[in-house]
Amino acid sequence: MFNTLTAMPADPILGLLTKYREDSHPNKVDLGVGVYKDPQGHTPILSCVKKAEQYRLDTEDTKVYIGPTGSAAFNELMTQLAFGTDHPALLANRIRTVSTPGGTGALRVAADFIKRCNPNAVLWVSDPTWANHTGLFEAAGIKVKTYPYYDYDSKSLKFDEMLATLTQIGADDVVLLHACCHNPSGMDLSTEQWDKVVEVTRQQGFTPLIDMAYQGFGDGVDEDAYGVRKMAAAVDNMILCSSCSKNFGLYRERIGACSIIARDSATANVALSVLLYVVRCIYSMPPAHGAAIVETILGSAELKQEWLDELKVMRDRINGNRAMLVDRLKAKGVDRDFSFIARQKGMFSFLGVNPEQVARLQSEFSVYMVGSSRISIAGISEANVDYLAESIAKVL
Ligand code: LMR
User: In this protein, which residues make up the domain named Aminotransferase class I/classII large (predicted)?
Assistant: First the structure.
């Protein structure tokens, strides 16, 4: 039966990893997959993570099954991190959280959960959105449509058009919003714009699904959760998918969380039972190691502070890289205005060059970025920025 298969194209993001690793160019630059890199181009293990891992190594006394909810302590601490400790939905006991294999696992759990709530629900995603969103939800049998979001010409939000589309969406559907650090555009909603989106969500009655993969990479842990908290305080139903891959640097440990907010505590219990059923049918139980690290960090005032400090270093470095690239492009005599890169947030921006230029950057200069010209800002460093700016200048 395998003879009937046709080969799938390489993943537009992950496919770059292999190509980059195989490239022997001495000045190659990796602006592909969204991972944090230090000035030496290395993705380090955070010091707070090392300490938490040591603690786990010393104290772990069983490898028995953890159960489909994952770790109760992790779930509670992640809920507090996302919503704050005194959020009204938390105080009303309306939130249920399960640990998941990464943010992608959280999204897949959410997708199957939505399918059980309403098999005909349409999921609306921003145009553009993370390359894996559409495939992931379609794989769960959910129809995906887009709402306007990023204006490639003006490098800004199409906010009025976004709002106009949202006001056409009915109560049976789900709208996916990025909490912060929009992937791929780096263009976030302002707090005023969030307020308007929350208002329209309430008025239309659709279910918001917020994807928070970069909490702490925009302006700060609490600042980045503005939309999540505002939305959760205003609506009856909401889904939050969060990831510990980037902000804890736990990429390969695969740890994230899926939270459901329901109208009341009794409905939340029913929703949790459905979540657990869905989890059991996909992967049975989440991995435990990443959750144990995160709960050790968040559960200790000292380690949590160390984590917040290390997160700030990563955030500041990325923001510094944004300004540095804009400056160096100017210094290389590029007269196109790239200042938008310094105004955007998080790991990504679109460079705004065309597909042929992206291909030339890769084949002639060994500069790797996604075909859409999405660049991972963390891949820029003092050591490669001049070569990068020169290469961009040459293809423009
Ligand atoms: C990215 O967008 O580069 C990251 O979220 C990694 C991934 O899985 O695509």
Answer: 27-392
Residues of the chain with pLDDT under 70: none
Active site residues: 130, 211, 246
**Inter-residue contact 318 to 217 (CB < 8 Å):** yes
What number is the ipTM of this complex? Answer: 0.95
Does the CB atom of residue 130 touch ligand 1 within 6 A? Answer: yes
Q: What percent of the chain has pLDDT over 70?
A: 100
User: What single string gives the DSSP state of each residue in 8-31?
Assistant: PPPPTTTHHHHHHHH---TT-EE-
The tokens 């540095």 sit on which residue?
A: 324
**CA nearest ligand 1 atom 2, residue:** 34
Distance 89 CA to ligand 1 centre (A): 30
From the CB of 105, is ligand 1 less than 6 Å away? no
Note the pLDDT of residue 303.
98
Q: What is the pLDDT of residue 255?
A: 98
| CA-proximal residue: ligand 1, atom 9 (nearest) | 13
Structure token digits, residue 240: 């939050």
Q: Residue 269 Cα, ligand 1 centroid: separation in angstroms?
A: 32
Confidence (pTM): 0.97
Q: What is the pLDDT of residues 74-99, one digit of tens each?
A: 999 999 999 999 999 999 999 999 99
DSSP letter at 156 equals E
What is residue 143's predicted lDDT score, i.e. its pLDDT? 98
Pocket lining: 34 vs ligand 1, CB cutoff 6 Å: yes
Are 109 and 100 in contact by the 8 Å Cβ rule? The answer is: yes
Mutate to test the pocket of ligand 1, among 33, 178, 214, 242 (most ligand atoms within 8 A of CB): 33
Q: Which two tokens stand for residue 181?
A: 């650090």
Residue 184's nearest CA partner among 251, 221, 131, 144 is 131
Which phi and psi (to 5°) does residue 372 adopt? -75, -5
Nearest CA to ligand 1 atom 1: 34
> Tell me: the pLDDT tens digits for 353-377?
999 999 999 999 999 999 999 999 9
Question: Ligand 1: which residue has its CA nearest to atom 5?
Answer: 34
Tell me how far apart the alpha carbons of residues 374 and 351 are, in angstroms, rounded to a whole number.
Answer: 6
Q: What is the pLDDT of residue 177?
A: 99
Domains of the chain, CATH where assigned: 11-44+315-395 (3.90.1150.10), 65-299 (3.40.640.10)
